[in-house]
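Homework help board

Subject: predicted structure for assignment chain

Our instructor gave us this sequence and asked us to write out the predicted structure in token form, then describe one feature. I got the tokens but I'm not sure how to describe them. Can anyone check?
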Amino acid sequence: MRHVLKMFPKTHITIAAATSVVVAAAILMSPSANVEANRMAYALDLDEGTVSESGSRPAKPAKSDDKPIPDAEAATVTEKPELTEALDTAATVAEASEPELQWQEYKIKPGDTLSGLFGKAGFNDGIMLSVIHGDGEADKLQRLYAGETISFATDDAGELTAIDLQRNLLETLRVEKTEDGFKGETVVREPDVKPAFASGVIDGSLYVAARQAGMSDRLAMEMTGIFGWNIDFVYDVRKGDRFEVVYEELYLDGEKFDTGNIISARFVNRGKDVIALQYTDSNGDTDYYSPDGSSMRKAFLRTPINARVSSSFNLQRRHPVLDVVRPHEGTDYAAPPGTPIKAAGHGRVQFAGWKGGYGRTVILKHGDNITTLYAHMSRLGKGIKTGTRVKQGDTIGHVGSSGMVTGPHLHYEFRVNGSPRNSRTVKLPDAKPVPQTEMARFKKHADQQVAKFELFRQDYQQLALAAEE
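My token output:
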């Protein structure tokens, strides 16, 4: 009998026992003369924790003023108040019998291993293997990064029940024990997104003005990236230039924890008003456009890396290694080894590999007449090989010192119909505007965003005037 009982979960046994008491009490409380007439069978659903009547009652002789008797199959034990109260008590007992899990939490540090963390929590490698070999995404538990948090849950018997690997505030890998073993899934929380407005006037540094306006450095960099095609933030910005930005603030459980993307922005540079609106097309691609639908960016990045120029484009330059006059058909950017190199524009990889004195090199073909070359890499970007399609801004490699060089740097060339051009001064083509098939949808979105922008601006100005008074 003991072995049979072990086959059922404790909660089910508890409900069954409580229900037996309820049924017995119900029969004893019924009038003795009618016991046989009201006898019924009770069906127990242990999964749902419910009790219902089954079978049928003997028919009662009908009188002219009698009301129809409800079908016994449809009747339930909850018709009796005393049974309802007893069932509520049984459910409470069953709920209380659920074991309370005990959690151990560890902050992952550099050098930590999954085996070591399992050991700290009191579990051996055998248990660890049974977890990572489980179903779903359980194997992703092996990918640990410093700064994440891992938690282990045990039941009253000390057995491992669940593991939570919190990647960040929004994403958690949850692995739970089931009847068939461990199973993992990624749980992503959706933050509440609220619009916010910031406005500033440049007195010296753009970044100082952005901070004074309540913007983070990341938002300031995003703003310069949006307007960077139209405004040179090194040479063009003047004292008195101003900006206004509507951006996303992210909240969890009512508390702000981060900022999201810029929704719309205006920059007034030397009296010229430039407006940018974020728009996601029907294919799910997001970019920034002016209110008339033209793209805020060019088809090519002016520079594929954030670094200083160490050697400019010069067709009469003397080669630093060979000491002979040899045209320098590109621009060199000095940067630490491993610095990411971005694709200057959308295109296809025409060449990826070793190319003589250029060392490890990638050549991209953009349309019919433009190519860009990136040389002296330490390694190629992930998945970069001949024929691969890339998008503007994709990482295609990393700075190195391969080939004939004196130090780590990127050598970048821009060619039109095979002829070298100075990438820093060549006129860059505009990126494609909103297509005509999207224009009606875009105009509706743009009108709404501009109207919202003006409302934010008016509210901000009123608050500023009230503060001055």
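Reply (TA_rk): Your tokens look well-formed. For the description, you could write something like this. The longest helix spans residues 436-468. That's the kind of observation they're looking for.
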